[in-house]
Amino acid sequence: MSGQSHESLTNLLARRKPGYALEAPFYTDDAIFEADMDYIFSRHWIYVGVEPDIAEPGDAMVVNIGKASVIITRDDDDQVRAFHNVCRHRGARMIPEGKTMIGNIVCPYHSWTYGLDGDLKFAEHMGEDFDRACRGLKKVAIRSVGGLLFVCLAKNPPDDVEEMARVMEPYLAPHDIRNTRVAFESDLIENGNWKLTLENNRECYHCGPNHPELTIPLFAYGFGYAPGALDEEQLRDAERYAELSRTCHTRWEGEGLPSQEVDHLDDRVTGFRTERLPIDQSGESQTLDTKAACRIPLGALKDKVVGGLSFWTQPNSWHHFMGDHIVTFTVLPIDASHTLVRTKWLVHKDAVEGVDYDLQRLTEVWQATNQQDADLVEISQQGAEDPAFEPGPYSPYTEGLVEKFAAWYIGRMKAALG
Ligand code: 3BY
Ligand code: FES
Ligand code: FE
């Protein structure tokens, strides 16, 4: 960024008022968007997809993170690797975004050919002195956390991803992501800044009025309301939810399913949070009737009522793991006012559509919820662009995690700017 923008960003970061939304330029300014891509998305562990996206040797997936493009491959030796999608000859982009099957990575421009391990295997007409060994694809750091794939574009990635993996793997293991497959995938472009997408994800204050499909007992009381503001019936519901949560946690932990809340959203470079939440009263899944959408349980899960294990990461993901399916979300910024939200629905790898599950039933809750959230992000962006915009206060009861996201973001930006 230019010297002047750098200075104004430093000032904006310094004067951020905790407990309040960010100032408008954080949502609208192109220079701050570029800084977000440099300091947040190029230096932290970014969630890009799941191991089942590249289940077999020869499978490859390309994910674009801003201007960077990353190829993720599975080699014959079953190794998952990641490379910059930039040819080492004259730099051509080699594979378009999406999933494919390849034997080698062949640049379409002059046919330089790389193995799935990134080594340059063929390059014609380059002369005697040409050293292929120096022209392998540039590696990108990749870490599978129980089957969830995180990449980091930095030369020295934050090493606390290991701690996140150590904590999260026992939570994720019972759902056995590696033995699932992607039943459906959707890309939704939201008309808003990526931080509005994340802020919106970190609260359920908006759920009651906006998400009829995401049955209210699912989350609402778990996200906390001001005690004084509840009428008697709501208070009884909130107490019932708290009691249900306690008994479920005891039962699940007894069954070997880690369930207790772990929250490192704002005190780690690689911020994350998890908790296993009850679904409705004795619900099985995030479906319209709260019954399992898929007949084949995941992993070794026998008990159908295992709630929904939620996992949130900074800066760009959230996930819900049920007994019968998994829904996983990737946030990829496009520009200051556009953000891609990529959602994947995973079922057991042997599950057959139309036999073991109905795609409509599997996806309808989050398809509807995603569109509702996209609409909310769009009106938030419109407000942030209005000259009258002034950051308002977060609710201390229902928007604590929004504050944690904002505090993490401000802290990471300050750290990057020194
Ligand atoms: O990948 C490269 O460009 C380096 C430079 C020298 C050796 N080689 C692995
Ligand atoms: Fe890739 Fe020439 S740019 S082979
Ligand atoms: Fe929502």
From TrEMBL:
GO molecular function: 2 iron, 2 sulfur cluster binding; iron ion binding; oxidoreductase activity
UniProt keywords, alphabetically: 2Fe-2S, Iron, Iron-sulfur, Metal-binding, Oxidoreductase
KW Metal-binding (keyword) present: yes
Region forming the signal peptide: none
Residue ranges the record marks as coiled coil: none
Cofactor(s) the protein requires to work: Fe cation
Protein name: Rieske 2Fe-2S domain-containing protein
Domain Rieske: 47-151
Transmembrane segments: none
